[in-house]
TrEMBL record:
Protein name (record): Flavin-dependent monooxygenase
Lineage top rank: taxon: Bacteria
HAMAP family xref list: TetX_monooxygenase (MF_00845)
Gene3D superfamilies, per database record: FAD/NAD(P)-binding domain
Subcellular locations according to the entry: Cytoplasm
Binding site for NADPH: 44
């Protein structure tokens, strides 16, 4: 008897969700190809810290067989949260993780991505391969169209290509909308040696000061690296209205210092002393409860499926999506049944999380920074309740 050929599976996007899916498929003996538009694994900075939760991100890494490697890289001490009064600089809230606490240890996104990449066979990820779109075919397969004009057909295309997914239009007309909030990001290097006062100010985890919807925060990453985030409630084209060239570091710095005029000097030093330029990150979301009618041969995971505000849940859901999809594909002989089973699990879970994020946004609009962590815990509890209730 001839063996049934392994399905041809393509993952679009080498972010952590797509890589988790590829890793678990590989563990189950399934072939998978990952297409990534970036030229290499080190083409750009991968972002700051991620706090991975037991029932979502950590569960996905257990399914990937990478949990012990994750623990070796993770920093439980990174769960520390320091809330400062923006005007006086006084410490108004301080949460320290208990010894051995592992509920949500932090890890650099780049480290986590590197861990997942290193677990895949060489050649799994095709770098510098941008995808322009995907189309379903009459036989239940799908055709990928690449930036160079070539095409390839697959039994399943998984869109793990983020907020501005090129895969999503094959399933949904939804597009991300601007939330009204923007993050302007910068960084400091070697803070323990070069900026010891700021290192002490931030501590081992996250520092935040907030007034209404304006916020300054900083996160300790590995290797003495500090990421700084200025949160602004502004129009999406705020820099155009201000006559700013975002590549003009000095001008952007001066503008931000004016925005935060009157805030305590210790906080303003996060902007004054930054080592790099400023990156503009307007925040977008997909509609709460975003869904689609099932289309054979195509599905989505992570931000491509359910883009939410950055409250610490998106990365966890992306990892869990990848794990659930790969597990379903390994457990079902029928590929289309597997994808349906995954979507029936993922879409209601994502809708519940998106509703919780919307509620949290309303809370944080008027609330103070000292309640941010408690609100995030509430969000994760809501998600866990949804999972257990199924």
């Amino acid at each position: 008897m001839n063996a049934v050929p392994s399905p041809r599976i393509a993952v679009v996007g080498a972010g952590i969700g797509g890589l988790a899916c590829a890793r678990i498929l590989h563990r189950h003996g399934r072939r998978v190809t990952v297409f990534e538009r970036e030229a290499s694994a080190h083409a750009r900075w991968q972002g700051g810290m991620l706090d991975l939760h037991v029932d979502t991100g950590q569960a996905a890494l257990r399914a990937a067989g990478l949990f012990e490697e994750f623990r070796a890289l993770a920093r439980p001490e990174g769960q520390e949260l320091r809330g400062l009064d923006p005007i006086t600089g006084a410490l108004v809230h301080h949460e320290r993780p208990a010894d051995g606490a592992s509920g949500a240890p932090e890890i650099d996104r780049g480290q986590l991505r590197g861990l997942l990449l290193g677990s895949l066979p060489p050649g799994t990820v095709h770098w510098g391969q941008s995808v322009r779109g995907v189309a379903p075919l009459d036989d239940g397969t799908a055709r990928l169209r690449f930036g160079d004009g070539t095409t390839q057909d697959f039994d399943l295309v998984v869109g793990a290509d983020g907020a501005w997914s090129r895969t999503r239009p094959a399933l949904s007309d939804a597009t991300p909308t601007y939330t009204g909030d923007t993050i302007v990001e910068t960084f400091l290097d070697d803070v323990d040696t070069r900026h010891p006062a700021l290192a002490r100010l931030v501590g081992n985890g996250t520092l935040a000061a907030k007034s209404g919807r304006t916020m300054l925060s900083a996160q300790r990453n590995s290797g003495g690296h500090l990421r700084v985030y200025a949160g602004l409630h502004v129009p999406a084209d705020w820099h155009v209205a201000a006559g700013l060239d975002l590549d003009d570091t000095a001008a952007v710095r001066e503008h931000l210092l004016a925005v935060f005029d009157g805030w305590h000097d210790s906080l303003l030093d996060l902007l004054r002393e930054s080592d790099g330029g400023f990156v503009n990150r307007p925040l977008h979301v997909l509609p709460v409860g975003h869904t689609w009618d099932h289309v054979p041969g195509i599905t989505l995971l992570g931000d491509a499926a359910h883009l939410m505000p950055p409250y610490g849940i998106g990365a966890n859901l992306a990892l869990l999506d990848g794990a659930d999809l790969a597990t379903a594909l390994a457990a079902h002989d029928d590929l289309d049944q597997a994808v349906r089973a995954y979507e029936n699990l993922m879409l209601p879970r994502a809708a519940a999380a998106a509703r919780a994020c919307a509620e949290l946004t309303d809370t944080l609009t008027a609330d103070t920074v000292i309640n941010v962590d408690a609100a995030r815990h509430h969000l994760n509890e809501r998600l866990l309740h949804h999972q257990t209730a199924r």
